[in-house]
Structure formats: C-alpha cells, structure tokens
Amino acid sequence: MPTITIDGVHYEVEQGKNLLESCLSLGLDLPYFCWHPAMGSIGACRQCAVVQYQNAEDTRGRIVMGCMTPVSDGAIFSLAGDKAQQFREAIVESLMLNHPHDCPVCAEGGECHLQDMTVMVGHRDRHYRGRKNTHRNQYLGPLINHEMNRCITCYRCTRYYRDYAGGTDLAAMAAHDHIYFGRHQEGVLQSEFAGNLVEVCPTGVFTDKSLVHDYTRKWDLQSAPSVCTGCAVGCNTMPGERYGRLKRVHNRFNAEVNGYFLCDRGRFGAGFVNSDKALEYPGLRQADGRYRALDHHEALLRMAQQCAQGRVAGIGSPRASVEANYLLRQLVGADNFAPGFSDTEQVLVSLALQLQADSAALVPDIATIESADAVLILGEDVTNTAPRIALALRQSVRNKAYELAAELKLETWQDAAIRNLAQHQRSPLFIAAVADTPLDDVATQCLYLAPASIAALGQAVAAGLGGGDSKAATDNAAGALPRAIQAEAAAITAALAGAKRPLVIAGTTCGSAAILRAAAEVASALCSGARQTMLCLCVPEANSLGQAILAGPDAPNLTTLQQRASAGEIDTLVVLENDLYRRGNEAQIDALLAACSQVIVLDGLDNATTSAANLVLPAANFAESEGTLVSLEGRAQRYFPVFQPQAERRAAWVWLLACLKEMERSEVYPLHHFDDITRACAADIPALAGITAAAPDLHYLNLGVKIPRQPARYSGRTAMRANISVHEPKQREDEETPLAFTMEGLNRDQPGALLPWVWAPGWNSNQSVHKFQTEAGGPLKGGTAGARLLHPGGSRNRTNTRPVAGDAAAENSGVSGAQPGLWQLVPRPRIFGSDELSAMSPALAELVSPGFIELCPADAAGLGIDTGDGVEVGDQLATLELRVNDSMAAGCAGYGAGLAGTGNLRALARVSLRRAETWQRRPGLIASDRGAGPGSSHV
Amino acid sequence: MLSSLTSQLRTIWTILQHSFTKAETVQYPEQMPYLAPRYRGRIVLTKDPDGEERCVACNLCAVACPVDCIALQQAVKEDGRWYPEFFRINFSRCIMCGMCEEACPTNAIQLTPDFEMCEYDRSNMVYEKEHLQIDGTGKYHDYNFYRVSGLAIKGKDKGQASNEAPPIDVKSLLP
Prior knowledge:
The complex is a heterodimer of chains A (939) and B (175). In chain A, 27% of the residues lie in helices and 16% in strands. Chain A is α/β, with parallel strands linked by helices and 939 residues long. The radius of gyration of chain A is 28 Å and the shape is globular. Chain B is of the alpha+beta class.
C-alpha cells in the first residue's frame, strides 16, 4: 500500500485509487462535482484541485485535479494550501455565476451537493456584475422535473444517462455558455433508469416531479430502511414520509444489490401507498352487498370465529412478507396453504428455486452480475421484469473495455480514456427472446425465437459445451432449430466457453420450464475448470422465492383449492394480500370464491378480490409494516415501517397473530413480537433458517440508543398535529424494531440493514453516503444488508431437490411446432404496469399503457389488421389493441402481461386471433405533444 | 437605641419622599406602551408589493424554530408559484425569538409589535394561515422574491427576473 503525505501527515492508501477517492476514504473533505463512485473520473468540473509537490524541497508545487491523480508511494499533496483553496473557491464562484436565486423554491435545497460544496470552499460573494444566463426548460415526462437554469455543467447527467444507463435521448447540446442538457425535443425520457438523474445531478436541474408538487425538505422526512417491492431484485430503498403521506423513495446503498441506482418502477412506483383505494377500516359484507365498517376488535372476533369453525384454507401471496405467509400457513395448516402463485408460475418458481439450489454455478448478486464477461439471456426481458439486473448487464458488457485498459495499465476510474479506448468493443451478450428487448442495443447477437426454440437453443448450447442431455439436445436442435440458428448456437457456445465469468440468465416470465432447465444445463456445462459460472433465474415478485421455499413443492395450487372448494371441502378461505383475479381465469376464481361460504381477505388496496370477500381486513403496506422478503438471488432482507399505519390498518402479521391467539392456538402463545415470528419461521422451515440474520432484532441498540427515523433537524414537532390537539402526545414507541419514531438516537456505524437516512456534518446531500462506507464506493461500515439463503455455489439447501410435480403440464405442448390458425401467447411485460401495486402509483399512471397484442408483420398481414386495430383473442378471452412488431417471432402473439384486459391470458397457451369488428381505434397520441397541453409546469 | 430610631425615621422620610415622585406604573391597557417597529411579538405572514402571498413554503422558518412550533406543507399554484397549503404556528409554544424572521428568504414571515395574545383555551393559540396572513407588506415594502428568482411563473418568463439575460437559443450558431 502506497504511503502519501497530505498536509504533512502520512497516510497509507489503497493502490489503484485516485487521490479524491483516497481523501474521501480517509475522511478528508475535498469538494467535487463530476466524479461519481460508480462512474469514475473525467476531470470536467476542476473542483477537486489540490497542490502536488515534486519532492520535499519543492515549496511551490503545482495544482492537479484530485480525481485524475493516481496515488503513488511518496507523493506529497496539500489540500489546505492557499493556492488550492483559492483555486477551488474561484471554481465554485465561476460555477455559481449563472446559478439562479432559487434555493427556497428548489426541490434540491437542503440536500444539494452544490450548496454543500459552496459552503465547504467558503465562497460567499459574487463579484461578477453581469447578467445571468437563462435557459428554457423541457417537459421530460411525468417523473422528472427539469430546471435548466440551475445547471453547473458537470456532465454527470449525460455520463450517467448515456454512458452508464445506455439511454440515447438526453444529451449535451450547443457549446460554451450556451450548453444545454436535455432532449432534442420535449418528451418523456425513454430510459427505464431516468429517475436516478434526481440523485446523480449535484444540484436541482433534475428533480422528482411528484415531490416537487408535494414537497418536503430532506430534514423533515421520516425515513426507515426499506426494500423495494416492485420486482424480485430486492433493491434497498429509503422511503420518506411526512404528514402520513409517502413523499419519495431514495436509493439506500447496498454494495451487493443496487449500489447507487434504482429503476423508475422502484423509485416512482411506491405512490400506491397514498392511494385513495387504500383500505382504512375492516369491512363486513351485508346482505345487500354493501360493506359495514367494523372496529378492529369486532373484526378480529369474527375472523377468529370463522377460522375456528369448519374447514379453513388459505392463499398466501408472493408479495407479502415471509412472516405473514408463515402465520397464515400456521393458521390453516400446510396442506391447506396455497402460496398464491398462478398455477404455471407455482411450478416455475419452485423449479427455479430447485435449479438454483442444485446448480454448481454461483447464484450471483447484482454486483457480481456486473463482473460477468459473457452473458446469455434465454427468454427473459430483464429490463421489464427485473430492471436493476439490466442496468448491471449494461455494465457487464464493459468488461471487455476494462480488459483492454488493463493491458495498457489504465486505472479503472479513467472513465473517458477507457471509453475512448474500447469504442464499441463489448463483452459478449447474447439474447434469445420472443421479440426485441431494451437491452438489444448492447447485445452481440439477438435471436427472436418462439419459446420452444429458445429452449432448444439453450439445449444446443449446453450440448455444444459438452453438458446436458446431449442426445435429446441434438435431436431437438435438429428438429426445432433452423440451420442459421445452429450456427448462432455454435457462436454462443464458443463465446461462453472462452469466458472466465460466464453468466446465464433465464426467468419464469415466459412461462416455460424447458427454458429454465436449458439455462441450468448451460450453466452446469460451464461449471468446469477455473471458470466462475453464474446462473441467475428471475422470478416475478418481491417474495416469490421466499414463498416457494416456505410453501414447498407439494403445496396445493389454486386449481387444487378450487376443486376442493367445489367439492365442498372448504368452508372458510383466507386470502392474504393477493388479488386472485391476477392469478387465474376469472371463471375459475369466481368458482373458488363462490364455493367457500366465508371469504376473508387481508389486503391494503381495494381490488377485485376484496370486493368479493365477506370480511375484509385492511393490511398495512410495506411502508407501514415490517417484514422479510427473499429476493431472486435468495437474499433475505428486512423492511421496516417508515410510519405508523393509519386508521385501523394493521400489518398482516398483526392481524394473523391476533387471530391465532384469539383462537387459543397454543403454538403461538410464545410469540409476542415480530422477531418471535421470524425466529419461529426460521426454526420451522430449515431452508429459511437464515432469515433471522437479515437484520438485527428489536433489542439491538446502537451504543445504548435506538436508531432515529427522523434527522436531527426534523421540524414542526409541536405544531404538526396542533390542529387536532394542542397537547403533544408522547412520541410513539416502536416496540417491534430497533428504530425509533423520533430524532433521538444514533445513526452511525450501525449494521447496513438499519440505515434509515444518510447525513454527515457538511454533507447534506446523498453524497454523504461515503461517510457511511468503509471506503468511498465500498460497502457500508456496518456490513452489507441482507442474508443469503441460497449460498453461492449451491452447496446446500437441498430441501427441494425432488422433481417438481406438474412440470410437463406447465410446458403446454412444449416443443411441437406451430399449429396453423393458432398463435402461442408469449408475455411481454412492461416495466410500468406489469407489476400490480406500482401500476397504482399516480406518478406512473400516465406511463402505463393499456393491454396490447404484438404480432410480426406477416402474421398481422395474414389477419388483415394493422397497428391500432383490435384483436379478439381466443374465445372471448380478451380484446386488445394490435401492435405490429417487426422482431416478433412468427407464430407468437406477445401480450402486455399484467396490463389492463390481459387477465385471462396465460403464457404459452395457443389461441386463435381474429380482427375485432367493433374496435374503436384510439386517437394517435405522441408523447412529446403532451408538454404543450395546459397545466404543464415546465416553463 | 438612638441609632435604630434614626434608621426608622429615615425610612419613613424616604417613603414620604416617594409620595411626590412620578409614578412608573403604566395604566395598561388604557395606556399602551410604545413598542418599536422591530419589537418581536405576534408573527404574521405578509404579501409582496403586488399583493401576492410572499411565503414560498421553503420550510426554513420551521427548521430554524428552536421550539419546532411551525409546521407547513408546500404546494404549487397553477401559475407555478410555490405556496403553503397550510401554515400553522403553535403560539402556545412560540418564544418570540425571531429566528423564523431571520431565516425567511422572502421576507414573508415577520414579527410584529403585538403581544396581546392571552387565551383561556390553549388551543386558541394555534394559528392557521388565515389567522397569520395579512394584506400588507409589513416592514419590508419593496421585496418581491419572484422578481429575483430564476423560477418562471405566469407573467414572468425566463430571463425576465432582475439581472437575467434572455433565454439562450440552443439552436443558434452565433457565438
């Protein structure tokens, strides 16, 4: 480790870092703008200037940029030297020349990196007397607010948007002091990761639009460590609350999962918490079909009474916590507990779990995915199903560039140099999908195939690598794969075989068990030699994997329950946080609910299932309750309540535990707190034993005190509820978690799972996170949040190793070729809309498209229809708008999974299509026209 | 004996003298004391010279308040102005320290020379925006934040604030 001298003090620093990183890691405050730990250095802003001396005799020194200066043994620097300080102050003064007088009406104020740095360098008076430049703003969609006047031209936005996230529609335009960061014309930002601009921009150019219109300063937000429920990746978040409303979601750093970035579904999709569809009181269905509000005690008595008499069955939910599902399973018994997947999904998720547990390949976290040097994606559109993985894959293709850089001995943080060096050379990324995906632009090769052919391609690759069932694969390959594709398979085989860290990705979305198996075969064929092979199987929801582990492979599915109910074997059905109408055919769910004499539903938002229930109990959402979720990499993570549940809402586990106690079930007598349930679940289900390690229990104290949810500057404590009563109540104590609903406590050096907000003296912005890291950009001091249940290397957890039943049925006529007049339905999920809850978020509502059917031009022409026409699917299953997609595999009909009107469509089903005669074409709407409408506040 | 008698007589004399000095007692409330314009009493919210609300709901008064007795929520008007949806001061907690006035970047919140705020019921000491808002400009007559701020609002486009150049035409090729 080199030793450097800064202002006369010797420091040991890490080799290969630049001076700025090293200073921040050492706890020395050096101002900067353009450098970002995830994006490296370009030396654009000139803010991190320091004086470097040639040797001990050199007294003059020269000014160098900290972010562009590698640390070398014996180097002598000065941060405090007058020359460097004056230089830094002059730089901030010049950056501030045109900065408007906006801070009071700027959504960045109070967490603004520019404010922090200006104060840090001591700049106060503006000497320049000329006029300030101004710019017109653009409408950038419903999520991001644009205020170009505030720009300091650090280039972070375009470097993030274009270089890091692969977007194309945001760029720097014009030159010198005309420079402008925006789109070539107004319109919605196209990248799925545009929301990160809010955190990347060091000042208020890009701000969260929904926050701007219901604003609260950072110091007034009550926050808690949380986990995104938008998909199965399990990104760590910090939602902020004020006055009982969720105001915004910010990224919570986790070195192994999301790092510094979230996707837009995660960042803007939590608005459903404030929805007016949120249930507030328990409701009992009257004879006339109306619901009567109950208080929680009466509701509980009724629930216990109904669960105590007759035969009870329960349907859990992959979007509810492990603990809530566990209690429901205890309530109804394992044999009567359906995990709440759709029938096909239940098979596939169990299979994905089994394949990952059995595989010799590593189940990678997101940071490890970024290290992959060859990637094969089979069938999954990760940008729309597990978006954060797509962002990681965009980094993985840069490993080629880093290899080239290593040959030239360039440091990895030399961002511009490495990009210039590599140009368009990328690590191999092969995508086999039913149609185009947003990752296609960085792919080496995209193959658009029907699901059966994708599986056959996978088998062919596995066979080529010398693994899998070679004979079957060869047969399949000969049958299902055209000759051209066979050549591609050979190319993929060669690329994967030549890689050191190959990664295979597949997922449950396309509904094919064969594809999952093929992916696992490819991975196991690669598990030889010195390769670090990775296998990532995407599952759909936040706790899908945890639910599969909890329920086990033998759990009944919805069809089984429906048959039992129809046979009169079920009296009371308890549904936990699950809209069943998204899980099965309407007719089937109707039959299930009608056959049970009592239907009890616990859920947060009003939906079709709650409307069919006899008794509805309002369950608290993720921001009001605690729970453990198991992400797709098998990481158990805890989310904590940001604020107390409103009205009569209670966490689902509270309802269920109280019900079990009311029923005098002796096994729950020892359970008093949330942690007791976690421990009981871990003891009961060996594969879930690790969940207790997801976060410290409620007895954890940080140097004798709890961890505060409110920052030290939290304001308005004696006035917030003075309109209700002038007598301030005692602050509510949190009896379930190590966090406190106050500003008292210590938010420092605690375990990473308990980080509610980031702030450090002089660092009010989110850049202060480096004060919580072991080194700038490194893991958190308190350790990385979450506990891995599937250990890397698949060395354990073989609880589910039996073959999963019903596998073949899910395949739904598998490999057999196209049938004339019938199309195979393939899901085409959308990042906005396919997820149930985030689609209810007002911020995203405008971006959720109505359901659609995609066909290739030949198929559409064959039916005599074109984009915008209506298509009737099957026997009145759905009537949807057609979109002609050039890349769609022939014989396949893509449908917008989870979108309005697609509830009856199932993956891989073969359906007839015909023109819908009574279809009304929608008027053409161009996104960029919206900005010109009235009420747009983008002036 | 003699000395104590002298002491008592002197005391009586002194008291007698006071009978002829001017009384310091003020006949409040009939006789109001003079309070300087910068006296720190009841808080008001003022309007700018154009008659618009000055408060932009920036929350600086709330965070400056040492007893946390100010709570507000920002909202945005149709014309682009920020304003407080509600603005509440709990005067039963207020210590009239004037920190809010010092913190206010728009001169909206001001302390006035009025201290007569007695109530029998403490809850009457909770003032909402309608109780705080006055029609005038208070102590500072000319300041209008939006004439200085870079934020465009209806009637004041980009480049029309003080010391601002007209918006740059990005597509221009001129230097």
